[in-house]
Amino acid sequence: LTGVIMVLVLFLMCTASTYAIRVSNYDIFWYTHNLFFVFYMLLMVHVSGGVLKYQTNLEEHPPGCFNPNKTVRENVMVPRAFEETFPDYTTEPFPEDLSIPEPFVQNNIMRICSEEPKFQSHFPETWFWISGPLCLYCMERLYRYIRSSKSVTITSVISHPSNVLEV
């Protein structure tokens, strides 16, 4: 929901910044661009959802490894027709003289995983990218406020044609 609202706010800001709207009604341009504050707040809420995740157990489950089925061969019932078709198939456990492969052993094609992958959410870092522009904006607003609070002395006013005033 926050992503959809952010897209709508950006759409309003982009359409209001077109030349035609700026010339015809500057107030629309001005007020929609003040929606950036709403956009930033929605962005902070949007990234705190923990959707982006990273894998925490890369040693036990490297990317691309094969995670074998957990069922035990001895407990699986093999149909008689299967045994007749494949006589070399055995339900015996692994032979004593062959060792069970270690995890992470390359078996010609892929690695064998020792456990399921585990994931954890990233810590939101959006504040880092938003804080710079937001601080600049706040400093600029403070500068405007300080300048607007000072008194101004008007020295002359000239009226030009087409209702233009020179102060």
Automatic annotation (TrEMBL):
The keyword ATP-binding does not apply. It is found in: Membrane. The chain crosses the membrane at residues 30-52. It comes from Hypotaenidia okinawae. InterPro entries: Cyt_b245_heavy_chain, Fe3_Rdtase_TM_dom, RBOH/FRE. This is NADPH oxidase 4. One of its GO terms (biological process) is superoxide anion generation. Residues 2-43 form the Ferric oxidoreductase domain. Pfam families: Ferric_reduct. Residues 1-20 form the signal peptide. Keywords: Membrane, Oxidoreductase, Signal, Transmembrane, Transmembrane helix. One of its GO terms (molecular function) is superoxide-generating NAD(P)H oxidase activity. The keyword Signal applies. Its main location: membrane. It is a multi-pass membrane protein. It comes from the Eukaryota. GO terms for cellular component: NADPH oxidase complex.
